[in-house]
Each structure stands twice: as C-alpha cells, then as structure tokens.
Amino acid sequence: QVQLVESGGGLVQTGGSLSLSCEPSRNIYSFDHMGWYRQAPGNQREVVATLTASGLPVYADAVKGRFTISRNNAKNTLHLQMNSLKPEDTAVYFCHAYSRMGYWGQGTQVTVSS
Question: Could you give the CA distance from residue 103 to residue 1 in angstroms, rounded to a whole number?
C-alpha cells in the first residue's frame, strides 16, 4: 500500500506564498505521474498541477504563472510552490500519485485571507 505524506500549507494573506511537500512511501520515479489537486467547500476536487515521470509539468489555467510543481530527487519529494495567492485558492490540497491505480494523501489546508 502506497502512502503519501503531505506537509506545508497554513494561513497566508492575499499575495503571499506557501509551499507544499509530498513524500511517497516508495521511489518517486516508480509512478507514471504525480500531482496536486484541491477541493474547496461545496466544490468538486480539481486538478492544480501534474508532473509526469519524465518531468513534464501541466497546470490548471487558474494557477498558471503563480504555482510551480517540482520534484526533489534527492529527498524523494514532490513540491508545489504557490505564489501570489488569492482567496479563491483556499482549499484542502491533496497529493496524488498514479501507478496502475491512484493514491491520495490525507490533504492539507491552505487558507488565503483577503
């Protein structure tokens, strides 16, 4: 069973920055792709950014130019750097990994105050 442990998140003012980390319980390169999703109250879970095993990033239109997904090979972690945060970015953020099946982290709260 694969586990994804997330860290980071918290409360920040509009325009601020936060960084999220996700550490899988096995080698990060064993997954076909990994990514970050978010779910705001009353909304469906939506993709934020994904990263293929070859390192190709894909971003949702809402976060392009503000968020950066990356991988730290030495630490075996996936990161999401979030800059210029807006109140509409407030949500629970989930790490996701896929290899034959999908795996989810427990989620971490990001709150952006106006």
Answer: 9
Residues in the chain: 114
Tokens 């996701």 correspond to: 96
> Is residue 72 within 8 Å of 79, Cβ to Cβ?
yes
Q: Which amino acid is at 51?
A: L
Per-residue pLDDT of the chain (114 residues; tens, 9 = 90+): 899 999 999 999 999 999 999 999 999 999 999 999 999 999 999 999 999 888 899 999 999 999 999 999 899 999 999 999 999 999 999 999 999 999 999 999 999 999
- The whole-angstrom separation of Cα 52 and Cα 82 is 19
Are 29 and 36 in contact by the 8 Å Cβ rule? The answer is no
| Alpha-carbon gap, residue 65 to 41, rounded angstroms | 25
CA distance linking residue 110 with residue 38, whole number of Å = 9
